[in-house]
Amino acid sequence: MIQTLKPETCSDEEWALRIKLAHCYHLVDYFGWTETIFNHISARLSGPAHHYLVNPFGLNYSEVTPANLLKVDLHGNKLDESPYDGNPAGFALHSAVHGARDDIQCLLHTHTTPISAVVQKKRGFTHDDFYGAQLYGRIGYHTFEGITLFEDEKTRMIESLGDKHILVLRNHGIAVGESSIEKAFFLLWTVQRAAENQCAAGALGGEDNPLEAGIAERCADLTAMLIRESGFATKFYDAMVRKMRAERVLPW
């Protein structure tokens, strides 16, 4: 039975975050970016303890609700009773980022086919199309070490991320993080579009028309400024939620 009711012990602030994060899971499913029951999206709760919410392992993203999201600490320990456990492969990545970067409140990890194809290439993301240009200077690259299960990889992942908000997990997938769920989702959408365009362009014959680094840098800086200083990402996120809810009946 899918849990949908607000627990009595849940604050209004936490419940609002749970609703927004559940919407994010359903949006990722709606856009077709899921990897069956795998991958993970987390949102940090307010407070000094660095607790965060994440999906119950074994559920489809379409089965995630505000009520059944897990609340865990930086070691992956559940803080509320739940019949579900988390995905161990997610704790190393999410706990590392939430423990080290106070400016990242939401972290999304995916490996769609276009993203997986791009991160398998040695050159990684290019910056010669509209979306790729917006990522210029915003990506950290991390060498593949296998499934992210082990404590000792955390430090290296954080070093690879640096002060960036996009982490390419080479030969694996992507992790994007921002100061809100809305901003993180918009950043993931941009990364996904960049990967789709790069794959499509690579399948065509002929030479690419390269962009000057200065132009790409200007695009990236402008996009970052719009996300940081305006309600741009929130408008986009709310519009996508409305579009999805017009086509789907959600269980809450």
UniProtKB/TrEMBL annotation:
<dbReference type="InterPro" id="IPR051017">
    <property type="entry name" value="Aldolase-II_Adducin_sf"/>
</dbReference>
<dbReference type="GO" id="GO:0051015">
    <property type="term" value="F:actin filament binding"/>
</dbReference>
<protein>
    <submittedName>
        <fullName>Class II aldolase/adducin family protein</fullName>
    </submittedName>
</protein>
<dbReference type="InterPro" id="IPR036409">
    <property type="entry name" value="Aldolase_II/adducin_N_sf"/>
</dbReference>
<dbReference type="GO" id="GO:0005996">
    <property type="term" value="P:monosaccharide metabolic process"/>
</dbReference>
<comment type="similarity">
    <text>Belongs to the aldolase class II family.</text>
</comment>
<dbReference type="InterPro" id="IPR001303">
    <property type="entry name" value="Aldolase_II/adducin_N"/>
</dbReference>
<dbReference type="GO" id="GO:0005856">
    <property type="term" value="C:cytoskeleton"/>
</dbReference>
<dbReference type="Pfam" id="PF00596">
    <property type="entry name" value="Aldolase_II"/>
</dbReference>
<feature type="domain" description="Class II aldolase/adducin N-terminal">
    <location>
        <begin position="19"/>
        <end position="199"/>
    </location>
</feature>
